[in-house]
Amino acid sequence: MIRRIVCAALALYAAILSVAWIFGTRHARQKTEALLDFALIDFNDTTEGIAKLLSDAGVVGFKKEDFTPERYEWLLGHFYDDWLIGEKGFFLCADLETGRLVSNPARHRNEATTLAETGFNGEAVASESWLEDSAETALLNLFGEPCYCRVIYRHGHIIVAAVPMTEFYGSRTVFVSVTGIGFFVILALFAYFIARISRDSKQLAQYYATEEAHRARDMKVATAIQRAALPTASPAFPERPEFDLEAHLSTAREVGGDFYDYFMLTADHLAFVIADVSGKGVPAAMFMMAARGAVRSAAEVSHSVSEILAIANARLAGENDAEMFVTAWLGILDITTGKIEFANAGHNPPLIRRMNGEVETVEGPRSLVLAAMPKTRYRTGSLRLNPGDALLLYTDGVTEANDTTGAFFGDERLSATLASAASNAPSTICNQLRFTLAAFAAGAPQADDITILALQYRPRVLSRNYLAVNESLKCAADFFNAALASERIPMSRRRNIAVILDEVISNIVRCSKAKSFSLNISFAQKDIKLTISDDGEPYDPLKHVDPDTTAAAGERQIGGLGIFLARRLASSIVYRRENDRNVLEVIS
Amino acid sequence: MTLEIEKRESDGKPTYVLRGRLDTNTSPLLESEVKLEGLTEVAFDLSGLDYVSSAGLRVFLTAQKQLMGAGGGVTLISPNQSVRSVLDMTGLSDIFTIV
């Protein structure tokens, strides 16, 4: 830039110099011409001019013969003595015939006595006719210096008006000086512009710095807003020991397009979602906020995964001018059973790590990504987590994480990492995966947002198997009391459950011809759930007709009171026949 | 905790003081302990009874039926809230004398 300016300035300077030279020269010439014109004016006014001059000097006529040589010389000498042309110009006057100079020899620096001796060359000023006044100024060397000359002939004399070139040399010099000044002006301007550019560039740098600071601050706030939009409490649900959940999001830039979310849909249903918006940066982040909101609000309207995604999709697709889309995996865990219903909108299939450490991929129906088409159906899949099983959701930032050679982390490494986790605890799984990913990347820049969500189902189910004999009743009751020992459960409720257990188990022992039965105790929020299953003949005790509790003592039935009591004491009892077993689910 | 049975007698009228729980396992114990021959009145002190299941109720009901034949009945003394609610639920609180 500066180099360009310097070149331009030099070129401009050269141009100005040339123009100054040309104009300077022309100007000097014009001045000279004017001077010569002026000097010869009286001569050009024909003889009258001279005559007038001579008459003024007291001489009438102008004829050589009319004068004594002394008088004539004096006249001419006197005349020319006072007559200079400009500062340095002079007249030469010579007799045409002899070529002898009649002008004051003192003016003729080499004391020439003839015209030829002055260096005058008649040829150079020759007009068409020798004796005609020259119409143009000629450049002759007189007395060794170049002079602009004009020649006229008067009264047998040749009169040469000469102005040395140096007379107006100053004029050219002025031009050159002006040019010099111009150069300095240009230099000054140049310096000014340089200073201004430098100031401007400083201002620009400052502006950019300010803008960058603003941007950084805005992005910091945006990051905070986005972070705040995601649940981060750890543990996620301290009051819900039946499951444990941990999620992490690491954005590639300040803000990201990934998100996870989880919230209680009902007292027994946990909704959790992981999603990835196409693209990165601010547009993706804004769409992510919209998507998260859409899923949340859809979950207020419906408790079905497919409906929630359909509603969210309709909303997102309707507002989607930016042609973005979202992949999402939404699950709803029934905390009482471990069953998960899910819908997959084009997202990576999650992994399950079973209690024994085996890793499975969750297949199941896949549907279109969110926000692509307004009316999309999302199919529902289901899976069951057994107590202790963990589910891992992730975005493609995990499998597509790069190492320094550009290789992907990939599905196999992910499965292996999950399998190698020390336990099924979500924090363990998350930490293991994050650690492994960091080690794999080995400093390679993170290309995409990385989001993981691990969920472990760990209902506090306590389970025992018993022989179907009366003695087992006591064992079961003791087991139950031990199981409830650390629980804050009112005595009256414990007693109620003890009665229920007694009634149900004695019923099995007495009526079902079962060899054994099992007792599961689980805690879900405030409920205590007993699942009693036996391998006896199909028998639904709930079909028993309630005894008449208003009959007189004599008519009272002894039997049937137990199940009646159990039903009254429990908040719900459900019977089902499952896998050749009678299963009674009691919730108190 | 199982069931402790203590028999007290005043004016030839027995009172069985029950402590613990009266359920399927323990009620046969009470059944064998309670002798009703020649009696018209029998009382059960339930103040120390934790809970009662239908098996226990059956013992009380059986006794009540027998004593009703002799013009008498069963008195239940100071049942706790759980036992009382079981008695109410089954309608048996109308049948026994509860003090």
- By DSSP, the count of extended strands of chain B is 5
Gyration radius over CA of chain B: 12 Å
Distance between the termini of chain A: 85 Å
Structural class of the secondary structure composition of chain B?
Answer: alpha/beta
Instruction: State the low-pLDDT regions of chain B, or none.
Output: none
Mean pLDDT of chain A: 81
**Overall mean pLDDT of chain B:** 89
The shape of chain B, in one word, is: globular
Structure overview:
The complex is a heterodimer of chains A (588) and B (99). With 588 residues, chain A is of the alpha+beta class. In chain A, a hairpin with a 2-residue loop joins β2 and β3. Chain A has helices at residues 2-39, 41-44, 46-56, 69-82, 115-118, 169-229, 281-301, 305-318, 396-399, 410-419, 426-441, 470-483, 491-511, 561-569; strands at 90-95, 138-142, 145-154, 157-164, 243-250, 258-266, 269-277, 326-334, 339-345, 351-353, 359-361, 366-367, 381-384, 390-394, 450-457, 462-467, 516-524, 527-534, 572-578, 581-587. The model of chain A is unreliable at 51-63 and 78-82 (pLDDT under 50). Chain A is rod-shaped, with a radius of gyration of 59 Å. In chain A, α1 packs antiparallel against α6 (169-229). Chain B is α/β, with parallel strands linked by helices and 99 residues long. In chain B, 32% of the residues lie in helices and 37% in strands. Chain B contains three helices and five strands; from the N terminus they run ββαβαβαβ. In chain B, β1 and β2 form a beta hairpin. The longest helix of chain B has 16 residues, at 54-69. The relative contact order of chain B is 0.19. The model of chain B has no long low-confidence stretch (mean pLDDT 89). The chains are: A alpha+beta (588), B alpha/beta (99). At the A-B interface, α12, α13 and α14 of A face β3, α2 and α3 of B.
SSE diagram, text form:
The complex is a heterodimer of chains A (588) and B (99).
Chain A: H1 2-39, H2 41-44, H3 46-56, H4 69-82, E1 90-95, H5 115-118, E2 138-142, E3 145-154, E4 157-164, H6 169-229, E5 243-250, E6 258-266, E7 269-277, H7 281-301, H8 305-318, E8 326-334, E9 339-345, E10 351-353, E11 359-361, E12 366-367, E13 381-384, E14 390-394, H9 396-399, H10 410-419, H11 426-441, E15 450-457, E16 462-467, H12 470-483, H13 491-511, E17 516-524, E18 527-534, H14 561-569, E19 572-578, E20 581-587
Chain B: E1 3-10, E2 13-22, H1 27-33, E3 41-52, H2 54-69, E4 73-77, H3 81-89, E5 97-98
